[in-house]
Fold each of these.
Amino acid sequence: MPHSLVTCTRLLVAIVLIAGAGAARAAPAPGCAVPHELIEDDPTLPKLGARLRSHQPITIVAIGGASTAGRAAGNDEASAYPHWLEAALRRRHPGASITVINRGVAGETTAAMVERFAADVFAVRPTLVIWETGTVDAVHGNDIENFTAALEAGLAALHRQRIEAMLVDMQYNPGTASVIDFAPYLGAMHRAADLDNIYLFKRFDIMKYWSDTGVFDFVDVPKGKRAALARDVYKCLGESLADAIDFATR
């Protein structure tokens, strides 16, 4: 394996280990709230909002990579952020039947995820799709035009199926962010979200805020504590996603 590919693979593993899953606690992890401007955005989710208000059953599909699958927590879906999102939404909306289906597969590019839409997304007829992507493309330096084309193709396919969508951008870690050029991929995701009026969950900025303010220390984490850190971060992401959904459905 070429040295550059080995380096990229190791960096991807490092990202996965840092951005983990939710701890087995009933309440949100302490201190992981984020500023309103990182959550509140113009795009809304009217169909999901209507179903919440009328107490109709809701199915949400979370499709993405390693962090969606819960790889940092031992590939345990019960610890991944889709699980904690479901728990948070059920707690906030006790009169609604809410199911979040995890369709995370580690190591996939954006284009590979789009190829799974028919079987893993459309088949269950969800009200909302949460699409977490971009990390693998950025780590491997995939062509930005190809990345953008795959992103737009996926959003167009969701639109044709009349499924509301929420994009989730890349993870943040000060070490990997200094080595990997995330900016072009973040920019492409922001432009695609603006063009298609899609809510973009700013995971990169949220995790940077947690890092900068000392909520989570992502630097020099001992190997024996990485899983615990991962669980807390996943839990906080689940709660922040629930905040975003609540805002977008008002």
Amino acid sequence: MCPLTVTIPIEEEFIQLSKLSLPKKSKEEESFVIEAVNIFKSFNTSTLSNQESLEQVVNSLVLRINQAWNTNARKVNITRHSKKWWNKDCNQALNKYRVSRNLEDWKSFKRTVKSTKRSFFDTKIQKVTNKSRRPWELMSWVNK
């Protein structure tokens, strides 16, 4: 019998620890949208006559939109709690436990997380089922 040896090359993985984000319905999001609309309104497209001029306009547009994004977005650290269901109540309960280290505060935090998750996913399920009434669409949403 001969032992089998396999070498698997593993590349170093880049793990992103932060990202720029615009919280929904925030002042930052509103400012970004207003700036983006104004950028589009201010562009002069009457001089577009060839591919080069189109590329210049598009590159300028991209640059200005990126500047607006960088101005209004804020840096958010990605943590294990970076979930769509995570909210201010979860933060407050977790911070309360971290300060007190009390078992009752830990239990309260776990109850808050559980009820927040249940509420979030029940709402998502209701949206999908009321919109289409097709179970496979619900399954495709879960897999995303």
Amino acid sequence: MTDLSEKDLKKLYYSIGEVSTLFNVNASLIRFWEKEFAFNISKKNKKGNRLFSVKDILHFNKIYQLVKEQGYTLDGAKKVLSEPQEIETPSHFDKLSLISNLEEIKAKLLRLKESK
């Protein structure tokens, strides 16, 4: 389950059985990860069964990728998930290109302003 995205999930909430099927794991593993990674399941049905939101499932997907696909230990996965996610910063070349484009737009706008 590597290519799971928000658009793949059509329902608002999923049962634990549906989540375990999505990841092809036992429901007990979902419950274990829920405890290990301190999930706050926000919704339960009238019977008290867990209902997982899309956000919960996407979080499980990150855990699954780290533990099952990349071979992280649980502690290693917790560490990765607790670190702030790095945002890719544009390279120097990208910045220069952006500045150049903005200067061209500014020049065009100034010419339009002057022509009025």
Amino acid sequence: MPLSFRPLIMNPVDLPPELSTPALSDELRTEIAAEANRCVACGLCLPHCPTYRITQSEADSPRGRIALMGGAMSGRIPMNARFALHMDRCLTCRACEAACPSGVHFGELIDKTRAVLHSPETDLPEAASRARPHWLRKFLGRELISKPRRIESLRPFFRFYQSTGLQKGLRQFRLLNKTKLALLEAQLWLVDKPCNSDGEAGARTWQEIYPNNGRQRGEVGLFLGCVARLTDTPTINAAIAVLNRLGYTVHVPRLQTCCGALHQHGGELKEAQKLVNRNMAAFEGLGLQAIISTASGCGAHLAEQFAASSRQTWQERQAAVRGNEAHAVNSIPNSQAGSLAARVMDISAFLAVAEGWDDVRLKPLPCKIAVHEPCTLRNILRGSTHPYKLLARIPEARVVPLEGNAQCCGAAGTYFLDQPRMAQALLDDKLGALKDSGAHYLATSNVGCAMHMAGGAYRAGLKIEVVHPVTMLARQMV
């Protein structure tokens, strides 16, 4: 591994005189400590952890992080800058959770610990407080990511930026150098327009209903996400086209918003819950057979949070929806609301069991397709086999797994911005495997992973297209 990460060892001098955390909620502290105590420190998680594999530091392993969390919540160790570093280095890939024989909910542990760590109410040393998210990051998350319609309003700007050659010039002369803005810009795909009722890209915004073509086989909802509705428009258009072709009417509720995963993993649990509530209100009462996501990260978060939120009353969720939009949703019993979680499906999982394939003909594609398995699809949704089954429908296509699929690619939401060295080390492994694969295409089911790897492949000069499996199917449909 070209990069070296020196393990950080806590010394007695790091301990502050007072280790108590009176500003923390006793309930939250108790929840974290109780779940951390379920870890038996067996070490079976260690080989599955990407950060431990690179640093070989116990503090960067799931077992080590759990020990740190439990110690911090009980006041045995300080929540200082070193503690914050080991928490923030976690990718939340949850490979450890999938391998844990004790069933420790590591995802909940790390999210709640970050909520404590990043809370302004928590009295932290100055060095540790600097680890909290920058005010600009919080502002963009609250005023842009949480309100995807504002993201969509930027579509004309980005299309102008790309069509006039400004993007090409900016990249060619490296005007952004190695700033975080350069990392973001490098991942920007070609921005397209939403499709209209005829399936052609050219509409200003998404329609609320896309009628099926021919025989009616069911009605499904489509979750757009936030950034994906701008940067991954071709995948969303392809999903609508394929679903319509198979006989499914697609609903795209205007009330839907960001899934909240970025906020959840950043420790902003209350903001994340608000977004979950709004999405539940958007999809409830439509009588949908499934709620489909083209991004496994969004789908995994929706499924888990819908299940957790089903314990709330309808009135509590409805109260979270502001303004006149609240009146656009019909009230349904809480028992039905809980079933929403069961209906959330990744697009590949749904298409693997969907009807209508007998009426569809696909053109041959005599090429090699390497399949990347996103962590959320593999470790949370447990649906990594579905893209293979889907792509196997394409005649003459050679579908193979990308070597190293058990390890994270390093994108992990905003991780590539917050931990660029670690993210690059993980990306280099993927690019090496991609180069050795000899594949013509890389198929992946999560937009964040796709943008991260496509940007890396472009910079490395690899002539390979990164594409969603559903997009490949749509292209081959006759």
